[in-house]
Amino acid sequence: MQWLLSTMCLIHVFGKIFCLLEPNKNPEAHMNVSEIIEHWGYPSEEYKVVTDDGYILPINHIPHGKNNADSSAPKMVVFCQHGLFSTAGVWVSNPPNNSLAFILADAGYDVWLGNSRGSTWAKEHVTLNADSKEFWAFSFDQMITYDLPATINFILEKTGQKQIYYIGHSQGTLIALGAFSTNQELAEKIKLSILIAPIETVKHVEGSGRLPAYYSPMEFKLLFGKKEFLPTVAFSELSPVACNIKLVDSGCAAVLGSLTGYSEGQLNKSRVDVYITHSLAGTSVQILTHYGQAIRSGVFQAYDWGSPSLNMQHYNQTTPPVYNVEDMKVPTAMFSGLKDFLSNPEDVANLVPKISSLTYHKTISDFSHLDFIVGLNAKEEVSEEILTMLGKYDSDV
User: pTM of the prediction?
Assistant: First the structure.
């Protein structure tokens, strides 16, 4: 963590020195998700969903592509959910020819993009202030229990569909595995689940993503407080200024790669400022302590409140309940990479036999964690295969 913070300081210094030497390369680094969608000439809608525990989550909607606005054919719904530190903007971080959301829209799908609580544009609550400790007292348990059901049910109600396609990346796969294995009513609303860089157990996480496991929950909260995890927020806000400078690009890429893994042949360094803005944003300190717990234990289970008595208060048992992925019956496809620090191949190998309805699994040897979404070969290796898969699934079912 000290290395991460030191690197951020160095980038800040370099940014101050060099930021006047050339203009911003990518205006999307300063845009929200709706603005990016409109920037590329696509229709954009935004809605807000209120969860049962009061969090207000924006949903971005791309109702159609550039050339199929007048199509009378019914459009199948595809819902994409981002990962830890990300925003819905990760799905539109590249130009349209290599951004999955745009590719899906141009192929005739009705595309919806979710935002998890605590991410850049999801810091509202019916009663709680985002400056309060109470607002940030959540982990991925609440995303499993509240966020995913509220968002999916809203989309189904809005579109009139009975089922949707689900595409999750990173934490978006973890909350799907948790939700679809514990909430069978929700699971029945998913026609096919596509898990990109899947996360379940995280025992073998590498790089800076492993740092929460080196601290006890108390130590981690003493270092970073009990609210938002501010280092990533600061770096994300700094990146549009610093990471658009050629001399600093490599430093920004190194910070990103230390967390996600790095494949030099896949990273488009000219767009690092956009990637960091939408892939290294905010979340709660509590969710990171939960991941630290998961790394140490090697078990996919609910948040440990620190004592048998507190766990008893929350769960009516002395230990946190385990999420049994084996109970999930949703047809599932997966994409994983051998250079992925967060979705480590050993953890993926542990997940595979647990999915009874696994229909497809592709391992890409030179892909790291973000390459599936923003990599130079993401279209050929992932997006086009997803289109083929969806097309066959529509015709087969």
Answer: 0.89
